[in-house]
Write a structure and sequence with these properties.
By secondary structure, the chain is an alpha/beta fold. The chain has three domains: 3-101, Rossmann fold (3-Layer(aba) Sandwich), CATH 3.40.50; 112-317, 3-Layer(aba) Sandwich (UDP-N-acetylmuramoyl-L-alanine:D-glutamate ligase); 327-466, Mur ligase, C-terminal domain (Protein-Tyrosine Phosphatase, Chain A, Alpha-Beta Complex). The chain is built from 16 helices and 21 strands. The N and C termini lie far apart (63 Å).
Length: 467
């Protein structure tokens, strides 16, 4: 099959997704269904996401078996699917077309101008903000985002307009597949070193990402982050178009000092030059300086798409967050419980800094679950420093995700480097018990991590209510 046919979803036949219930895979499955492609898929466990896909017309299987791929012409896998998976093995044995999720997403983008949002941190929020802003401006965008976005009603949709906003995952290099017209880089800090051979290789991947832009494409890069700033300088020197943003006075769109009020933030954006220099007031319904920067990146995307500045900030004002990004899980007796996906030290710092702003003088209690043995070992000292920002932090056992456990490596590698108020509590249930006993009216309790620590939030709310 030639390259043109590979990018046209109408040529894929019936598409079967292995592990269809995950946020990334379900997004692509929804887009294929919206394009009229017959879709089937499976996952190990039932979930609301699977039921939603079934309601949209997909054939859904709970459990995995070789017979599920029968009748499919294309099979989609993610990096998380091992080669020994029965459906994956059956697809290869039958000579079926096997696509990585990123290639399937690229096919779902067929015929649209792509906005690809990349970076070590902030991809989900920035892509959600950009999609919402274009949607609010009446441009009818499509989107594929790695979390449910309540303001958009879904993590993925196929709109009638020109633009397609996609969260571009760098974890396995798949962000090189999308051929964007606008590329956003929020920051570049080494991560996913289980995939990349070195930190240098990680940085080179972002140069390759920027190089996928056409000559008239645009790189939107954060001036405050050394990695993305250096990337922008190299891209500009090579003749590429760049718009920078940040608090740095050298930014093309500068964020002036603002104010925080509970979950809301207010900032001023300075843009243009000379007589065209002007200000726009940015008001957000989400907390944290990091979200102001995310919103500014989305603002830059909207301007490039032709949205007037006043309409762009109006659209951003309607953003109320996405799933697992400082998400309020409940409030009992003045104690608020939030959940956040932060799983890199910089993200943990951002989440706890935002929590301190929202707590407004009351205490911040955190339950943190490290994600991946490789990441925990690489950043143990940095995680210890980040968690010190909490008044009390309980660190539960590592979530292995796609990795095999490492003998002798536990979350204690973090707490042994941290102050006394950061403690190792291996079991999540014990951590909930201790947090419930410690919490007082006015306190903010935050569950943090990319693993199943998210399940502790509702349990905290229930236990606080019973208390």
């Amino acid at each position: 099959m030639d390259a043109e046919h590979e990018t046209d979803p109408a040529r894929l036949g019936r598409v079967h997704f292995i592990g269809m219930g995950g946020a990334g895979m379900s997004a692509v499955a929804k887009l294929m269904l919206a394009r009229g492609v017959p879709v089937s898929g499976s996952d190990r466990q039932d979930s609301p996401g699977l039921r939603q896909l079934q309601d949209l017309g997909a054939t859904v299987h709970v459990g995995q078996h070789a017979r599920h791929v029968e009748g499919a012409q294309t099979v989609v896998v993610s990096t998380a699917i091992p080669p020994g998976d029965p459906e994956y093995s059956a697809a290869r044995a039958a000579g079926l077309r096997v696509l990585h999720r990123s290639a399937a997403l690229a096919a779902a983008m067929h015929g649209r101008d792509v906005v690809a949002v990349a970076g070590t941190h902030g991809k989900t929020t920035t892509s959600a903000m950009a999609a919402l802003t274009l949607h609010a401006a009446g441009l009818g965008p499509s989107w594929a985002i790695g979390a449910h976005v309540a303001d958009l009603g879904s993590n993925a949709a196929l709109g009638p307009g020109r633009w397609f906003v996609a969260e571009a995952d760098e974890s396995d290099g798949s962000f090189l597949a999308y051929a964007p017209r606008i590329a956003v880089v929020t920051n570049i800090e080494p991560d996913h070193l289980d995939h990349y051979a070195s930190r240098e290789a990680f940085f080179r991947a972002f140069d390759e990402f920027a190089a996928t832009l056409p000559r008239d494409g645009l790189l939107v890069a954060c001036q405050d982050d050394p990695g993305s700033r250096a990337l922008a300088e190299r891209h500009r020197a090579a003749g590429g178009r760049v718009v920078s943003y940040g608090t740095d006075p050298g930014s093309d769109v500068q964020v002036l000092p603002g104010a925080a009020d509970g979950l809301r933030t207010r900032s001023t954006l300075l843009l243009g030059e000379g007589a065209d220099r002007r200000e726009e007031q940015l008001e957000l319904a989400v907390p944290g300086r990091h979200n102001v920067l995310n919103a500014t990146a989305a603002f830059c995307v909207a301007l490039e798409a032709g949205v007037p500045p006043a309409d762009a900030v109006r659209g951003l004002a309607g953003f109320h967050g996405s799933a697992r990004r400082f998400e309020l899980r409940g409030e009992i007796d003045g104690i608020r419980v939030f959940d956040d996906y932060a799983h890199h030290p910089t993200e943990v710092v951002a989440a706890l800094t935002a929590a301190r702003e929202v707590a407004a003088g009351y205490r911040v209690l955190a339950i943190f679950q490290p994600h991946l043995f490789s990441r925990t070992r690489e950043f143990a000292a940095e995680f210890a420093d980040a968690l010190a920002l909490a008044d009390e932090a309980l660190v539960i056992d590592i979530y292995a995700a796609r990795e095999q456990p490492v003998a002798g490596l536990t979350s204690e590698i973090v707490t042994e480097r941290a102050p006394a108020h950061v403690r190792y509590v291996p079991d999540g249930s014990d951590a909930v018990d201790q947090a419930v006993r410690a919490a007082r009216p006015g306190d903010l309790v935050l569950t943090v991590g990319a693993g199943d620590v998210t399940a502790l939030g509702p349990r905290l709310v229930d236990r606080l209510g019973a208390r």
